[in-house]
Amino acid sequence: MSFREEFAEEARSERPDLALLCLYLAAEADPAFDQRALDEAQMELDRLAGLLPYGLSGGRAWAAAVSELLGGRLGFHGTPADYQRLASSLLPQVLKRRRGLPILLSVVWMEVARRAGGPVYGLALPGHFVVGFGDPQERVTVDPFAGGAALGTGPAELAAAPLEPARPLEIVLRILNNIRAWAAARPEQSAVSLWALDLSLLLPSHPASLRYDRARLLVDRGEFREGAAELDAYAGIVHPVDPAAAVRARNEAKAARAMLN
Length: 261
What we know:
The protein is of the alpha+beta class. It folds into two domains: 3-168, no CATH class; 179-258, Serine Threonine Protein Phosphatase 5, Tetratricopeptide repeat. 57% of the residues lie in helices and 7% in strands. It has twelve helices and four strands; from the N terminus they run H-H-H-H-H-H-E-E-E-E-H-H-H-H-H-H. Strands 1-2-3-4 form a four-stranded antiparallel beta sheet. Helix 8 runs antiparallel to helix 9, helix 9 (190-202) packs antiparallel against helix 10 (209-220) and helix 10 runs antiparallel to helix 11 (224-238). The two termini are 38 Å apart. The mean pLDDT is 93.
């Protein structure tokens, strides 16, 4: 199977593997990415996990050990400039550069700790992503973007934080949304927007509006016939709940087909 097919199969598995999904995602951005590169990234995560001390117990001990290793000894962290790089959303590149967006650095924290048996989870804060250890009620939370700095428990920092850990597919969709936002600011990167949308639509649960976004992107790229077909498909999906939106989509499909003349 292709990596895209592997992504779709893993996303629909009973317990999706977050690291694998992130690596399959990265293959879309790099035509040279192959099974060897995937295996090397997995082995690097295993190697990092093997550097953690044995006998850790409790969320605070795990948080301190993982952050001391990754943020301290190895220098994983983020900078404002990382928001300008597609590489900051690609797990193999984050492992090599030790730089990335908050959510990708959090994936590294989570996957390294998980491989070592740590009680770890991700927390999707508004506009940020952090990592928790132990029982979520204890609020032992660190910020990988800041090198693993501990977050306080006061209202200014965590009042809006969800107690429910982010699920792997939610994390992957958020990563894909970040990639789309990066590409949207760079019209010459419409191909990146397209593959990010294609992967998003392979997730078993996704907003129906992604179909519309993909259709509009195809039209903007000059792929009028394909875009019109997508608009019609979207109209069929939303018609039962929003007939007006369906009518607008069908009108846009007609306009796209007119561009073929």
